[in-house]
From TrEMBL:
Keywords: ATP-binding, Kinase, Nucleotide-binding, Phosphoprotein, Transferase, Two-component regulatory system. Residues 207-413 form the Histidine kinase domain. InterPro entries: GAF, GAF-like_dom_sf, HATPase_C_sf, HATPase_dom, His_kinase_dom, HisK_dim/P_dom, HisK_dim/P_sf, Sig_transdc_His_kin-like_C. It comes from Leptolyngbya boryana CZ1. GO terms for molecular function: ATP binding; phosphorelay sensor kinase activity. This is histidine kinase. SMART domains: GAF, HATPase_c, HisKA.
Length: 413
């Protein structure tokens, strides 16, 4: 069993134990309150005794003897009686309060009632204890005193149970917060470990690239010298091919270095519309843009972001170049800025070129995955690393209508 499954089983076991404990406490309280109603019935020789509680203005019976369905009226006239009792705060008799009831027929066969408020040690009334009789009767002061004592014990038991429930809820919230904090800490630790590992890989890669670049430069110098000396057409073709391959290898080394290098951002506040407008004007002069057009639209003119200008420029140069390469001369690519909500903005770059095969689409941001014969397969991987460093999101959708690359970034005031 892996660690995640083990933690899940442990959490489930804890939840079940907690629920069982809570159910036990509720069962104990229910038995205790039922015992109180039985004692009062015996003490006062009453026909029906109930304990009620008021929560947020809603009255409910917590305990009854005999059981509620065996006891008299089905209607909740005890709610009216309880409200009257709380208003007066003293013992009440039905003959004293029946004229206050809206529906006197609700009393049924009960002709006498003794009610005591359930008052906590802090003086807060949380409910009532009522004993109902079908025949008039008189209770001694000693018996009434005992009922008042039982009411105090009942109030204490209910309050303790409520405090217990509040503590359980508080403990559960605390445990959830701790668990969330631990998960966030683990995510941070994992991210730091990844960054450290990438930093080590970057240092190692930089050393290798340095060692490759030096002899590659020497080889390139030799090829250029040979190109000047060997004027035969066949020799010139071979040398041109070798020089092109050396240039491609140098570009690959540069992109590998960019990919493995830690993303250290120099953030500044940018007006996204102005930034892209200026950049797209410059990109119209790139070779891939020949006989092609680009259109920029935005629904909201003043959207600001916090970003590294140079790195973000690198992102959109790559994405726009890819879009130009995907369309034919005379066609157009569209760049649209739209705010998702108050906190996020999305930049869509759409081309109507050939759709990307669905089996390749999920792997486009994986290093060395490319749909172009001469591509290094690192361009989109580098783009994704830069966007991720900005706490953004890169998504790619492709269909018969074309391909849309979307970049989500956070908006700043």
């Amino acid at each position: 069993m892996n660690l995640q499954n083990s933690q899940s089983v442990e959490q489930q076991r804890y939840v079940l134990e907690s629920l069982a404990e809570l159910n036990d406490q509720a069962y104990i309280l229910s038995r205790y309150l039922h015992g109180i109603t039985c004692e009062v019935c015996q003490l006062l020789n009453s026909n029906w005794t109930i304990i009620t509680i008021c929560e947020e203005g809603d009255w409910q019976i917590l305990a009854s003897h005999p059981l509620l369905h065996e006891a008299g009226p089905e209607s909740s006239f005890h709610t009216e009686l309880s409200a009257i009792l709380l208003q007066h705060g003293l013992l009440q008799h039905i003959d004293d309060v029946e004229h206050h009831l809206d529906h006197q027929e609700q009393l049924g066969s009960y002709t006498y009632s003794l009610g005591v408020p359930l008052r906590t040690i802090y003086g807060r009334v949380i409910g009532t204890l009522y004993a109902f009789h079908q025949h008039p009767c008189q209770h001694s002061s000693e018996k009434i005193s005992i009922v008042q004592s039982l009411a105090e014990r009942t109030a204490m038991a209910i309050e303790n149970y409520q405090l217990y429930q509040q503590k359980r809820l508080s403990d559960q919230r605390l445990e959830q917060e701790i668990a969330t904090g631990l998960r966030e800490l683990q995510a941070i630790q994992s991210k730091l470990a990844t960054q450290e590992r990438l930093a080590e890989i970057g240092e190692f890669t930089a050393l290798i690239i340095h060692e490759i670049r030096n002899p590659l430069t020497t080889i390139e110098m030799g090829l250029n010298y040979a190109k000047k000396r060997l004027l035969n057409t066949s020799d010139q073709k071979r040398l041109a091919l070798a020089l092109n391959e050396s240039q491609r290898l140098k570009q690959l080394l540069t992109e590998i270095l960019l990919y493995t290098k830690p993303q250290v951002l120099k953030r500044s506040r940018l007006n996204l519309g102005d930034f892209l407008s200026e950049l797209l004007i410059q990109l119209k002069d790139m070779p891939e843009a020949t006989d092609r057009q680009i259109e920029l639209t935005f629904t909201q003119p003043d959207i600001h972001i916090s970003a590294d200008r140079d790195k973000l420029k690198q992102v959109f140069i790559n994405l726009v170049r890819n879009a130009f390469e995907a369309i034919s001369p005379g066609e157009k690519i569209r760049c649209e800025i739209s705010s998702l909500h108050a906190e996020r903005v999305c930049i869509h770059i759409h081309n109507n070129g050939e759709p990307i095969p669905p089996e390749i689409l999920p792997h486009l941001t994986t290093p060395f995955c490319s749909t172009k014969p001469s591509g290094t397969g690192l361009g989109l991987a580098i783009v994704k690393r830069i966007i991720t460093a900005h706490d953004g999101e890169l998504t790619i959708h492709s269909s018969a209508a074309g391909t849309t690359v979307s970049v989500q970034l956070s908006i700043v005031p």
